[in-house]
Each structure stands twice: as structure tokens, then as C-alpha cells.
Write a structure and sequence with these properties.
Layout lengths: L9 H9 L7 H11 L4 E4 L6 H15 L9 E6 L3 H14 L7 E4 L5 H10 L1 E6 L1 H10 L9 E5 L1 H6 L3 H9 L6 E6 L4 H10 L4 E4 L10 E7 L5 H12 L4 E4 L3 H13 L4 E4 L5 H12 L5 E4 L1 H4 L9 E4 L6 H8 L9 E7 L4 H11 L4 E2 L10 H50 L1
Parallel strand pairs: 1-6, 1-7, 2-4, 2-5, 3-4, 5-6, 8-13, 8-14, 9-11, 9-12, 10-11, 12-13
Length: 430
């Protein structure tokens, strides 16, 4: 199905053409008609499937059909996103879709100065894309009112809840009017996401493209079993021998990400790192160099990678498996986007096998394993037996040592008794 079939205004169609869009993705085909009818929507679709256009295009269409001058310190549409990267990306996309409609669009998030954002908000903005924490700051300060809002979108709602934004979102919802149209987009659905949807929506229509919590068919998934201490060595070998050009690597912590980035560069593999301790300028510079091919590897933590839109990214590597199985779906969704193929590689240690089982249960499939010669992981059962033998040996040795010490002690005590008796006899003789 193509975009002409929905009879968008000429201004929107021209913008769609400028973006190079030709045919609709499945989520766009299903969500756009429902949103245009005015229904609240719960949409389940994987990242990289065109979700932004799925909600932005019908919202822009409805705004164009009902011209309104946005009042000072007000907005017509609000999009909430979990991270600054995603907020910036969504705002850029909406600007591209609305460039012939002359709407004002702003992204607001933490890590930047509040005053310039507040000045723009007080003037009135047609569409605001924001992270929950920074938006709440502006609501409290009076820089923005949501009393006249017409459209509310929660993008990647599951991630916002995982990041602890539940209370902020509740406060933001309380500041909105009840007549708004609400849309919730999420790649995975938990009980918390379902509760949020029930609280904020009125008879929502469910739009589901894929089975919930599944991965895209365009992504080839592979597991490499490896000892934790040899992961970096294996990663460097895979990148070098297989000549991977553009690899996004997920690490568990900021410290681990910094260490891995340093070691990869020492191995001769150009790499940069992005995480919460890096300022926005450094993160953007690293991403730009990665997309331009100046570096081969971009090492990232979970939060920093949220919202990264890297076109034609072929490889995603889980250097460490995520703590939550649902995050695996988000991570590997950075590749295989918009129908293109991608590869998701997970380096899995013995300690992560249980997490891997949780992931396989969630996505409903067994992930193919590849063992690299020289990096084999010792059999867990055999290791347990060996450990039991060592413990048994240690116990026996300890028991033997205790007996030996006891004998020595008894001999020593006996010797002291003999010596004492001899001394006493000598005293009596005197």
C-alpha cells in the first residue's frame, strides 16, 4: 500500500516524497486509519518499523484540517520519549514531515539549558517532543500548560517505565485535559504498560503488527558461548576476521563500556563510546563518525543507545546480555530496520546462560549457537564435579591437617607433662 491511498494533504505528500518514502510499513498501514478516526490507540510494533510516521502523519493531517493558532505557553501535540536521543530523532522526523505546513516543533530534554527551552515554550509551540523529567520541570515552572492539548503520544512506553518515569508520567497525565486523543507505542508489553494504557485511554483500539515481545524476521540471531574473561578477545577476532564494518556493541555498565572501548582501540579497531557520562556534543560526534564510517565500533550502554537511528546498521553485539529479557528485543531492534537484514550477536558466558534461557522463552525461539575453536566454554556439569572434587579434597586435607595438628599438640602436651614430672621428682630428691 502506498501513501497516496490515504489522501494526505499536498503539503504532507510533498514532504513524504522528499523523505524518499514510497510504500507503507505494516504498522503505518494499520495505525494511520485508526488514528485518523480519532480513536485512542495501543500499538505494538518493533523498533525500526516506521512508528514515528505512523503517529505523526495522521496527527499532522488532523491539525491541518483544523487550523488553530497555538496560544502562548501551550501546545497542540505532545510526544513523550524515554531518552534525549529518541526525543531529538522524533522531533527531526516530525519537522521533516511538516516542513510545508509551517508548524513549530521543539525537542526538550535534560543535559541542556532550561532557559532557552522555556522561552520557546512560553511563545507557544505546535508540537513538543520531550523526555518526562525535563517536561515536568517546565510544567512546574509554568513554562508550558497542557490544558489545551489535542494529541498525546507515549513512544517506547515500556522503556520509560523501565527507566523509572512512572511517577513523572502520572503527573504529566494529570496536567492534560480529558478530551485529548492518546496513543501508546511500545515494542514490548508488560503488566505495567497495560496498566498505564488502561489509565490514560478511553476504549483504545489495539494495533498489533507482530506477536508481542518477538523480534523482527529480518534479524539473524547468533550466540557465541565464551568465557567472560575472553569476550573482548573473541569480539576483536570476529570483527577482524569477518571484516565487520559497522558494529554497535552493548555493554552492561559505563565503566565496562569505557574499558572495552580502550581495549578495542589498542587492538587496532577504531572505536568510540557513548554513555550517560558523555555530554551531548561528544555523543553526537561519536555517532556521526560511526555513521560516516570513520570508526568501526560504537560501544554503548543500554540507555545511551535508546533512540539511535543508524541507517543500514548490519551488526549489533550484546557484549553483555541485558538484565531484563525485554531489553534484548530493544537492543537488537537497532538492526534489521525497515525491512532490511541485520545480524544480532550475543557473547554469552556460563553465568549468563539462565538469562539467555529467559530471552529465548520471551521471544519464543531457540537462538543458534556457534562455537569458535579455541574459545570453547568448559562443560558446566564437569566443572561442578571438578569443583566438588576440589572441595572434597580440601575437606579431607583440612581433616588430615587437623588430625596432624592434634597429634603434634598431644605430643607436645605429653612432652611437657614428662618434663614437668621429671622436674617435680628432682625437687623431691633435693
Amino acid at each position: 500500500m502506498n501513501f497516496e491511498s490515504f489522501n494526505f494533504p499536498t503539503e504532507i505528500m510533498q514532504a513524504i516524497s522528499d523523505c524518499g518514502y514510497k510504500t507503507m510499513t505494516p504498522v503505518q498501514q494499520k495505525a494511520i486509519p485508526v488514528i485518523r478516526r480519532g480513536n485512542d490507540v495501543i500499538a505494538s510494533a518493533q523498533t525500526g518499523t516506521g512508528k514515528t510516521a505512523a503517529f505523526a502523519l495522521p496527527i499532522l493531517h488532523k491539525m491541518a484540517n483544523k487550523p488553530v493558532t497555538t496560544a502562548a505557553a501551550n501546545t497542540r501535540a505532545l510526544v513523550l520519549a524515554p531518552t534525549r536521543e529518541l526525543a531529538s530523532q522524533v522531533a527531526d522526523n516530525i519537522k521533516a514531515y511538516s516542513k510545508y505546513l509551517n508548524y513549530s516543533v521543539i525537542s526538550i530534554y535534560g543535559g541542556t539549558k532550561v532557559a532557552p527551552q522555556a522561552e520557546k515554550l512560553r511563545a507557544g509551540v505546535d508540537i513538543v517532543v520531550a523526555t518526562p523529567g525535563r517536561l515536568l520541570e517546565h510544567l512546574i515552572a509554568g513554562s508550558l500548560s497542557l490544558s489545551n492539548i489535542e494529541f498525546l503520544v507515549l513512544d517506547e512506553a515500556d522503556r520509560m517505565l523501565d527507566m523509572g518515569f512512572s511517577t513523572d508520567i502520572q503527573k504529566i497525565l494529570q496536567a492534560t485535559n480529558k478530551q485529548k486523543q492518546s496513543m501508546l507505542f511500545s515494542a514490548t508489553f508488560s503488566s505495567a504498560v497495560n496498566r498505564l494504557a488502561n489509565e490514560m485511554m478511553n476504549k483504545p483500539q489495539v494495533v498489533s503488527v507482530d506477536k508481542q515481545n518477538t523480534t523482527a524476521d529480518t534479524i539473524s540471531q547468533v550466540v557465541y558461548p565464551v568465557e567472560q574473561r575472553r569476550k573482548r578477545e573473541l569480539l576483536s577476532e570476529l570483527i577482524g576476521k569477518k571484516n565487520w564494518k559497522q558494529v554497535l556493541v552493548f555493554s552492561a555498565t559505563r565503566e565496562d563500556a569505557d574499558r572495552l572501548n580502550k581495549e578495542l582501540n589498542l587492538d587496532g579497531i577504531p572505536s568510540k563510546v557513548v554513555h550517560g557520562d558523555k555530554n551531548q556534543g561528544n555523543r553526537r560526534r561519536a555517532l556521526r563518525e560511526f555513521m560516516e564510517g570513520k570508526i568501526k565500533v560504537l560501544v554503548s550502554t543500554e540507555i545511551a543507545a535508546r533512540g539511535l537511528d543508524i541507517q543500514d546498521l548490519e551488526y549489533v553485539v550484546n557484549y553483555d546480555l541485558p538484565f531484563l529479557a525485554e531489553d534484548y528485543v530493544h537492543r537488537i531492534g537497532r538492526t534489521g530496520r525497515a525491512g532490511k537484514s541485520g545480524v544480532a550477536i550475543s557473547l554469552v558466558s556460563r553465568e549468563e546462560e539462565r538469562t539467555l534461557k529467559d530471552i529465548e522463552k520471551l521471544i519464543g525461539q531457540k537462538i543458534r549457537r556457534i562455537e569458535v575453536p579455541g574459545y570453547e566454554v568448559s562443560n558446566r556439569d564437569l566443572l561442578l564435579k571438578q569443583l566438588q572434587k576440589r572441595r572434597s579434597f580440601a575437606k579431607n586435607k583440612q581433616r588430615t591437617d587437623n588430625v596432624r595438628e592434634q597429634i603434634v599438640a598431644e605430643k607436645s602436651m605429653s612432652g611437657r607433662r614428662v618434663k614437668l614430672n621429671a622436674t617435680n621428682k628432682a625437687k623431691k630428691l633435693k
